[in-house]
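Technical annex, item 7. During the second reporting period the consortium partners agreed on a shared format for inverse folding records so that results from different sites could be compared directly. Each record opens with the tokenized structure and is followed by the designed sequence. A conforming record, contributed by the partner at site C, is shown below for reference.
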């Protein structure tokens, strides 16, 4: 699929994978939104449209932040690969409210010059991605992981007849059972639609994951993909049947242990400003964050 150059945009389509995925895989920061799966599965929520930045072969993504509470709908643009030339940015700011998910590697070379042009940048803490050492999550060693280790040990003691399998076309029906059960338990849609579509399109998207069974019954699964030039693995979806106490802690540890060692970091995405989610992510002792900035004029 041919992606037109700016200022022309087209809707994000599954056929754009051949154009976007190789280029997005080369971005170094590991911004969780900037994967083909992450963009495509949320294309309807944010009305994503894409254009090619002729400067470096990168892309410009246009999206709409839905209205929420007292906040009106807003239009944003993102540039995963590099900052466009100033005339392109001027044009984008005329049709968009802000520049979203500006990574450190994109911002650093141009920040000083753009600030002279009146662009103001601010950290977007609610959208920072949480980073963890894969080895630490796999081993849960030491006092700082004592409570997590207890949850895992409780699960292993209570459900010794568990089984872990690599996600494949054959295990998708079992994963579908889990997500439907999860939806009924939560009583809300949440990210149900993109999570279900990720399963439906498992063979068409660059994903890998694991599924867990207890006494032969589907109990939990996780899905994600490689980012940041193959040094980082992003977890996009984790779903479990919560009657199995400790299942989430166990899945987190077991999947980290099963990943190849060349993944030194695991990206567990952002907290979106949810205080409960922020506390939960902090209990796993992040080793750092993928910082993101917002740019406005």
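Designed sequence (site C submission):
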């Amino acid at each position: 699929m041919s992606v037109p150059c700016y200022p022309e945009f087209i809707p994000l389509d599954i056929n754009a994978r051949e154009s976007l995925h190789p280029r997005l895989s080369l971005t170094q920061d590991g911004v969780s939104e900037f994967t083909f799966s992450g963009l495509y599965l949320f294309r309807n929520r944010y009305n994503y449209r894409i254009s090619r930045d002729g400067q470096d072969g990168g892309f410009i993504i246009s999206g709409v932040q839905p209205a929420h509470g007292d906040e009106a709908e807003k239009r944003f643009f993102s540039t995963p690969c590099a900052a466009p030339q100033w005339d392109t940015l001027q044009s984008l700011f005329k049709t968009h409210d802000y520049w979203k998910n500006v990574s450190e590697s994109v911002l650093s070379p141009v920040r000083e010059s753009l600030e002279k042009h009146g662009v103001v940048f601010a950290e977007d803490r609610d959208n920072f991605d949480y980073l963890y050492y894969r080895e630490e999550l796999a081993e849960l060693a030491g006092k700082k992981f004592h409570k997590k280790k207890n949850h895992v040990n409780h699960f292993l003691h209570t459900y010794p007849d568990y089984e872990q399998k690599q996600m494949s076309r054959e295990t998708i029906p079992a994963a579908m059972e889990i997500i439907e059960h999860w939806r009924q338990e939560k009583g809300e849609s949440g990210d149900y639609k993109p999570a279900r579509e990720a399963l439906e399109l498992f063979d068409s998207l660059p994903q890998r994951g694991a599924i867990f069974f207890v006494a032969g019954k589907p109990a939990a699964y996780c899905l994600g993909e490689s980012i940041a030039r193959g040094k980082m693995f992003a977890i996009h979806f984790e779903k479990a049947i919560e009657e199995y106490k400790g299942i989430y802690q166990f899945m987190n540890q077991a999947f980290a242990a099963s990943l190849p060692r060349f993944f030194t970091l695991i990206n567990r995405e952002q907290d979106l400003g949810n205080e409960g989610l922020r506390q939960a992510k902090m209990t796993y002792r992040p080793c750092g964050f993928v910082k993101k900035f917002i740019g406005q004029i």
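The chain has a mean pLDDT of 95. The chain has two domains: 10-127, 130-269. All partners now use this format for quarterly exchanges.
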